[in-house]
Design brief:
Distance between the termini: 16 Å
Low-confidence stretches: 1-10, 35-42
Order of helices and strands: HEHHEHEHHHEH
Largest sheet: 4 strands, parallel
Strand order of the largest sheet: 1-4-2-3
Mean pLDDT: 87
Number of helices: 8
Number of strands: 4
Length: 203
């Protein structure tokens, strides 16, 4: 779900990370091997990755960075978005719904789970990226106040962090084991995971 009145790519940095599919696949294989169950790797598992609906911060013009410190509920528009995806997903045989512990993700997951007649489950470490000192600011303000750090981040967010926060690489290292464990736990099944912009972009 993209922020209203913004480009999904125009204000977002290009991510320079290792092959994410290979990275997660390697993590899955590692978990399987530790359990002595490499035969499970051949089963087809479907992961439906969903971003939370919009909040008031997403709808501001310009929008501000929420990170993991601003924990707003869904806006009315965000609630509509959650209902829309909840109406769409029951056509698939989803067996479990997981979400970040942040309110906007839990509310979105709750709408999806109700439509599927399931109980959503929280995976706390799927929370949004720590954006450090840039929390609550828009990108133009960040560019003006922190020109060097802004440039470094947009040139290589995989290693250059949000000032005082996480890089995309940090987020990938945090969430990769969680996703890998869920894929192993639900081998051969379909699951939905509701998370956040940066989290979903790194997986």
């Amino acid at each position: 779900i993209c922020e209203p009145n913004t480009s999904c790519t125009g204000s977002q940095p290009r991510v320079k990370l290792p092959d994410r599919r290979a990275s997660v696949s390697t993590a899955v294989a590692s978990v399987l091997e530790s359990r002595g169950s490499l035969a499970m790797e051949s089963q087809v598992t479907w992961l439906y990755l969903v971003r939370h609906g919009a909040t008031e911060a997403n709808e501001r013009i310009p929008y501000i960075l929420q990170g993991n410190g601003i924990d707003l509920p869904l806006s009315p528009r965000g609630e509509q978005q959650a209902r829309a995806v909840a109406e769409f997903l029951p056509r698939f045989p989803i067996r479990r719904v997981y979400s970040s512990g942040m309110l906007r993700a839990r509310q979105t997951a709750g709408a999806i789970a109700r439509a599927l007649q399931l109980e959503p489950q929280v995976a706390p470490d799927l929370h949004e990226c720590n954006v450090g000192r840039w929390e609550g600011l828009d990108w133009e303000t960040i560019r003006q106040q922190f020109p060097d750090e802004h440039r470094q981040f947009h040139e290589n967010p995989g290693t250059a962090p949000y000032l005082g926060g996480e890089s995309y690489g940090d987020v990938l290292r945090r969430v990769k084991p969680i996703i890998a464990s869920l894929l192993v736990a639900h081998a051969g099944e379909s699951i939905a995971v509701v998370a956040h912009n940066v989290v979903n972009r790194t997986i």
